[in-house]
Amino acid sequence: MAFEGLTERLQSAMSKLRRKPKVTEADLKETMREIRLALLEADVNFTVVKDFVKQVRERATGTDVLQGLNPAQQIVKIVDEELTKTMGSEAVPLNKSDKIPTIIMMTGLQGAGKTTTAGKLALKLKNEENARPMFIAADVYRPAAIDQLETVAKSIDVPVFQLGTDVDPVEIVRQGLEEAKAKHNDYVIIDTAGRLQIDEKLMNELVNIETLAQPDEILLVVDAMTGQNATETADGFNSKLNITGVILTKLDGDTRGGAALSIRAVTGKPIKFVGQGEKMTDLDVFHPDRMSSRILGMGDMLTLIEKAQQDFDEDQAKKTMDKMRENSFDFNDFLDQMEQVQNMGPIEDIMKMIPGMANNPAIKNVKVDPKDMDHIKAIVYSMTPAERENPDLLNPSRRRRLAAGAARPIVEVNRMIKQFNEMKKMMKQVSSGNMAGMEQMMGG
Ligand code: GDP
């Protein structure tokens, strides 16, 4: 899980502060020392850390905060605001051209996720704007690169312009742009070559492509797992090309946080999107404030809600809400819900987006085995339609039948039904407007 160590250390620094009856200058100094170490250990750029700590200290020192109401809370707020600022404050949208096509050039080192991300971006444009993107395959050094782009493109039904590997990339781009104009594609996404390291020949080629294509957007794809190296790579590309935005990939892995926190401050270029998985739908707009909440372990409810909206069927969600209100949620709905939730990705990742959960010891080491979900489903599948609609029918003899049908122990059947009934009770409370519990959870 991304940022785990950083979140843990920041939270520990803050909670020590919270336990103090009074916060003194010395306490603040100690907290800032811990925060500084936590950031350095997370591989955040040294200068970025220095500036960050200076800002927080300046704002937190002085009587206003320390002698005001709830100083620890105020310091957390300052840290949150400064982290957000370090990452760029606001989400920055994709540049668009007044005339079609809008030209997007993808750059980055080999393995950063350029081709995958080109596909994700095209799919996003298709889904959100009904766009008709086209790819240009300008990586002529690895035949496999063109094949990979073709495979990605096919999976999302986007055309690829390619001339094989024997033509100069600049010429490929020139012809590709003509084709896009002729076919009225509204976006062109150019997949360029990557190397394992920045080298001059590659940079010259990219500069030539830039000069010819005059892209509206030159996106640099960097791998978040590479920490500070990602920042150096970004600096290198940025010094030759007019990079307009960064896409940080592999934020679903256990990256320490250095790249996310350093890139904007070091290069001055905004992170526009983040890749959070290998699926074509795993690309999210980068929101500095939400990322800060996530890093501080305060959860990322907004992204969670957006994810749910994207993955959940709206009619289905409405039906479920109605059922919850009427208290008629049954095992058929339960099955639908389980399937939809499973589509959102690993349960433990989803849980960690809930405020206060990221470092909650109760779920820290939770690994929800997909097999457990399958066992629960098997039990539900063993129910008759009448039982699914009316769980009250499930007396001991029927439960024994379910256990035999699903080949699961009877205790598991009993536990599952008990959990279902508890969930139903909770749903009733929430839908009848009793939000007190929820608000408490969100720290309100
Ligand atoms: P390229 O050489 O820059 O074009 O990189 P690729 O697009 O081939 O990606 C390299 C590897 O990283 C592939 O196995 C991708 O599936 C994987 N990858 C790309 N983006 C992500 C991401 O956001 N999360 C994860 N987990 N893997 C990713």
- Average of per-residue pLDDT values: 86
- CATH topology value of the largest domain: Rossmann fold
Q: What is the CATH class name of the largest domain?
A: Alpha Beta
CATH superfamily of the largest domain: P-loop containing nucleotide triphosphate hydrolases
Uncertain stretches of 5 or more adjacent residues:
434-444
Q: Helical proportion? A: 55-70%
The count of strands amounts to 8
Which hetero ligands occur in this complex? guanosine-5'-diphosphate
Specify the CATH architecture of the largest domain: 3-Layer(aba) Sandwich
Give the topology.
Blueprint: H1 4-19, H2 25-41, H3 46-60, H4 63-66, H5 71-86, E1 102-107, H6 114-129, E2 133-138, H7 143-156, E3 160-161, H8 169-182, E4 187-192, H9 200-213, E5 217-223, H10 228-240, E6 245-249, H11 258-267, E7 271-275, E8 283-285, H12 288-295, H13 301-311, H14 314-326, H15 331-343, H16 347-352, H17 361-364, H18 370-381, H19 385-389, H20 396-406, H21 410-431, H22 436-441
Parallel strand pairs: 1-4, 1-5, 2-3, 2-4, 5-6, 6-7
Antiparallel strand pairs: 7-8
